[in-house]
């Protein structure tokens, strides 16, 4: 039986206490949100409602809000698929060939991941105006896909490195072209990595308020991340109950997406070792 040293035991206790504090910090707002969503007289204090009601949900489940949720899913899913496709095509030569400018390009991509989106929105808005793309959902989707592309390429390249080149070489011997080997050999093996890129881009686009707020002017084209401002009045007052109910509904697509791809996501970081073995 192994004996744990006092120093390791103290470190374990400190780590567990830290995790408990972090868990409480995250659970407290969710607890308030759940309680306030069924409380007609919700306040900023988390308290059990005297008469639980679903009126808050009925109030936010309007045609306009449902359309906003549909717009958000369209923008997020579209940008996620575009980022996943382009990142795969861009990461392939970076992973398989010794390019002269491959490493500087990767460092440039890594720098681009830390560039705040607000720093480029003014020239992007000017470009959209000149090209007459303002209030276009397709153009906004393309821009959202572009913002997630740097990290998507970096992540896809790392996943693609875990697929042995020997498998592609065997496909080439059988007469497959480079694109056929990529589609039939590499992509099936790195599908978990592609799912991670899609989820990452989807979540970024789903929670993005600033970009669609600037580029989409028509209320019927704006996503749920933008229409949430309807619960804030011009005098700073907030309708807390409907806001909490709206927040719960707003979280459901991301939770559902995670549950659907949970098995794929859980194997995303172990598939490389399996293919090498």
Helix content: over 70%
Task: Give start-end ranges of low-pLDDT stretches.
Answer: 271-277
CATH C-level class of the largest domain is Mainly Alpha
CATH architecture of the largest domain: Orthogonal Bundle
End-to-end distance, in Å?
33 Å
Radius of gyration: 23 Å
Instruction: Assign an overall shape.
Output: globular
Number of strands: 0
Domain count, please report it: 2
Order of helices and strands: HHHHHHHHHHHHHH
Largest sheet: none
CATH-derived topology of the largest domain: MetI-like fold
Layout of helices and strands:
Layout (H helix, E strand, L loop, with lengths): L5 H32 L17 H6 L2 H34 L5 H12 L7 H10 L6 H25 L3 H9 L4 H12 L1 H16 L3 H6 L8 H4 L12 H21 L1 H5 L4 H6 L1
Structure at a glance:
The chain has 14 helices and no strands. The protein is mainly α.
Describe the structure.
- With 277 residues, this protein is mainly alpha-helical.
- It folds into 2 domains: 1-53, no CATH class; 57-276, Orthogonal Bundle (MetI-like fold), CATH 1.10.3720.10.
- The protein contains 14 helices and no strands.
- Helix 4 packs across helix 6 (137-161), helix 6 packs antiparallel against helix 9 (191-206) and helix 7 crosses helix 8.
- The longest helix has 34 residues, at 63-96.
- It is globular, with a radius of gyration of 23 Å.
- The two termini are 33 Å apart.
What brief labels describe this structure?
71% helix, 2 domains, mainly alpha, 277 residues, 14 helices
């Amino acid at each position: 039986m192994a004996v744990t040293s006092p120093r390791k035991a103290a470190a374990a206790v400190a780590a567990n206490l830290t995790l408990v504090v972090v868990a409480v910090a995250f659970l407290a707002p969710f607890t308030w949100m759940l309680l306030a969503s069924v409380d007609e007289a919700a306040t900023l204090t988390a308290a059990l409602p005297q008469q639980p009601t679903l009126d808050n949900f009925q109030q936010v489940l309007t045609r306009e809000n449902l359309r906003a949720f549909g717009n958000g899913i369209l923008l997020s899913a579209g940008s996620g698929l575009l980022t996943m496709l382009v990142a795969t095509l861009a990461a392939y030569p970076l992973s398989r060939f010794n390019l002269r400018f491959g490493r500087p390009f990767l460092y440039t991509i890594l720098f681009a991941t830390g560039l705040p989106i607000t720093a480029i929105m003014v020239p992007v808005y000017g470009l959209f105006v000149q090209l007459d793309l303002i209030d276009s959902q397709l153009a906004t989707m393309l821009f959202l896909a572009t913002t997630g592309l740097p990290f998507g390429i970096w992540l896809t390249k790392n996943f693609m490195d875990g697929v042995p080149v020997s498998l592609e070489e065997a496909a080439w011997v059988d007469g497959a072209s480079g694109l056929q080997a990529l589609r039939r050999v590499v992509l099936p093996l790195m599908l978990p990595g592609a799912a991670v890129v899609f989820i990452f881009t989807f979540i970024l686009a789903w929670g993005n308020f600033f970009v669609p707020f600037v580029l989409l002017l028509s209320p019927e084209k704006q996503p749920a991340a933008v229409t949430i401002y309807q619960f804030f009045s011009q005098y700073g007052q907030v309708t807390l109950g409907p806001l909490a109910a709206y927040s719960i509904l707003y979280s459901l697509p991301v939770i559902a997406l995670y549950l659907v791809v949970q098995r794929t996501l859980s194997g995303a970081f172990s598939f490389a070792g399996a293919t090498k073995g």
